[in-house]
């Protein structure tokens, strides 16, 4: 299970607070502190993993009693499992809330109903019409034609869908605001109870649940930044996994001796099979990268080239001459947060993907994501087949890494988008404002024009107004171009949040 909400956040910078009312702010959006993997990690990951694995193996043999290590690691994993399981449960509750209290749903006759918790009513729009009319017969926060309900249900709807602000403050030390929803608190409470039960009963079911939670958070918290880095990291661990399983006793011994949630256990009638969490997380971060690339392409294809006039002043024989040249300005579409649309998309069906701006934003093509998932599933089936045929532990990454990586790169090759995959990065360099570019005869962008001028804060506001004015026809394109040049010169990623390559 992949957190769709996490897939829109840049993995290269720590998240900071955002001000309400700021441009681009979305109530449902979350920022995550994500570790961006670099090419050096392709070398460090296998080395560090090998050191830890061999260290645990030697420690188990030296102590001759793995229970001691299990208790030590259990104390550590008890804290980590509480945070991971809390996150998984909270996001699961968020998804369920979207089904119970949606803001839009589609009736059998094709009519769309928009639920407004503030006005405590539902507004309908007929197919092909954007006009919304209050439906007096629908006085419920639920989807479907139901009897009238009292205000208590509307209050519960607001309770589960609105954000809460928790303030942590110690005078002179720190003052932090944490924005959460009620489901986040429920998730932590349930996770706390599940963690206590797990460490008192050693339940295999709860162990697997904690393992899923670790995998879920691991995919959220790591990203390879580029496809080349991701491919290098995966193939580095690909060779590590082969060596440790086939040529050493380290991997099998540690996996069978330690009773900690670092693996998933599937109990059969006679014996059990295990799948290491690394076999989920490592391919999973590449699958997440593919999904974010799909999202980037959806916005990249919506860019528009607006003609602007460039003025150049030259002095010849003491006289000032002004020449004009027509160039193009890349205007990016407005970013709309697509997070948390599971329930709404199901209740409107695929026939109404544009019922709301958020639903339309979440309905982008996910070609590379599906290719990566299919590659993973086929490789996992092949892994299980090899396990049954040879009756010997198999290094899952031996099959999973080629299955995921090759499926994505082959998709890019077939679609003619290998260049886009090669240059795609999540380091923030693709995140910029509208800019002036040069285009060829076919209308393809060949070069970005950048300036080295600087501006004050006051000039920045004037420039922003000038660019917005050229889009509405209120400001001449020449003045807008001058504003774009100044903006592009000192453009830096937003200091209030991590730079997002998918954001327009």
From TrEMBL:
Keyword Transmembrane helix: yes
Subcellular location(s) per record: Endoplasmic reticulum membrane
GO MF annotations in UniProt: aspartic endopeptidase activity, intramembrane cleaving
UniProt keyword Manganese present: no
Membrane topology reported for the UniProt record: Multi-pass membrane protein
Database matches in InterPro entries: Peptidase_A22B_SPP, Preselin/SPP
Compositionally biased residues, Basic and acidic residues: 447-468, 474-485
Listed Pfam families: Peptidase_A22B (PF04258)
Primary location group: endoplasmic reticulum
One CC-aspect GO term: lumenal side of endoplasmic reticulum membrane
Sequence segments annotated as region (Disordered): 442-504
Residue ranges crossing the lipid bilayer per the database entry: 42-60, 182-199, 205-225, 232-252, 272-293, 368-390, 396-414
Any single GO BP term: signal peptide processing
Keyword terms: Endoplasmic reticulum, Hydrolase, Membrane, Transmembrane, Transmembrane helix
Protein family according to the UniProt entry: Belongs to the peptidase A22B family.
Protein name (record): Signal peptide peptidase-domain-containing protein
Species, as recorded: Microdochium trichocladiopsis
């Amino acid at each position: 299970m992949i957190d769709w909400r996490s897939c829109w956040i840049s993995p290269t910078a720590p998240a900071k607070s955002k001000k309400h009312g700021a441009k681009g702010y979305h109530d449902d959006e979350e920022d995550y502190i994500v570790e961006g993997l670099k090419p050096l990690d392709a070398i460090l990951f296998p080395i560090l993993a090998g050191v830890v694995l061999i260290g645990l193996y030697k420690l188990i043999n030296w102590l001759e009693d793995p229970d001691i290590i299990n208790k030590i690691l259990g104390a550590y994993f008890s804290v980590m499992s509480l945070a991971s399981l809390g996150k998984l449960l909270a996001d699961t509750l968020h998804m369920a809330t979207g089904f119970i209290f949606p803001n839009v749903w589609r009736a059998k006759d094709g009519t769309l109903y928009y639920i407004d918790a503030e006005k405590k009513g539902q507004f309908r729009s007929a197919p092909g019409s954007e006009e919304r009319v209050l439906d007096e017969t629908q006085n419920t926060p639920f989807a479907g034609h139901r009897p009238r309900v009292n205000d208590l249900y509307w209050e519960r709807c607001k309770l589960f869908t609105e954000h809460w602000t928790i303030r942590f403050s110690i005078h002179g030390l720190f003052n932090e605001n944490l924005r959460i929803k009620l489901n986040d608190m429920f998730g932590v409470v349930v996770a706390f109870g599940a963690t206590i039960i797990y460490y008192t009963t050693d339940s295999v079911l709860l162990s697997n649940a904690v393992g899923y939670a670790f995998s879920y958070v691991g995919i959220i918290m790591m990203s390879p930044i580029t496809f080349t880095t991701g491919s290098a990291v995966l193939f580095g661990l690909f060779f590590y996994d082969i060596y440790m399983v086939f040529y050493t006793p380290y991997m099998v011994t540690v996996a069978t001796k330690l009773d900690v949630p670092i693996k998933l256990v599937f109990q059969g009638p006679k014996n059990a099979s295990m799948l290491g969490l690394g076999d989920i997380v490592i391919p999973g971060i590449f699958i997440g990268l593919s999904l974010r690339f799909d999202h980037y392409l959806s916005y990249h294809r919506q860019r528009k080239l607006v003609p602007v006039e460039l003025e150049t002043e030259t002095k010849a024989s003491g006289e000032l001459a002004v020449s004009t040249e027509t160039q193009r300005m890349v205007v990016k579409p407005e970013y709309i947060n697509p997070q948390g649309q599971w329930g709404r998309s199901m209740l409107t069906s695929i026939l109404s993907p544009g019922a709301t701006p958020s639903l339309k934003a979440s309905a982008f093509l996910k070609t590379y994501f599906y290719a990566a998932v299919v590659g993973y599933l086929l490789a996992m089936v092949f892994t299980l087949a090899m396990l049954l045929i040879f009756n010997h532990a198999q290094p899952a990454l031996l099959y999973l890494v080629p299955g995921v990586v090759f499926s994505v790169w082959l998709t890019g090759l077939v679609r003619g988008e290998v260049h886009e995959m090669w240059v795609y990065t999540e380091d923030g360099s693709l995140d910029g404002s509208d800019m002036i570019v040069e285009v060829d005869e076919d209308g393809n962008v060949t070069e970005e024009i950048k300036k080295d001028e600087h501006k004050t804060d006051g000039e920045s506001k004037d420039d922003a107004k000038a660019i917005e004015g050229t889009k509405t026809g209120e400001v001449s394109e020449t003045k807008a171009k001058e504003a774009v040049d100044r903006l592009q010169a000192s453009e830096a990623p937003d200091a209030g949040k991590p730079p997002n390559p998918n954001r327009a």
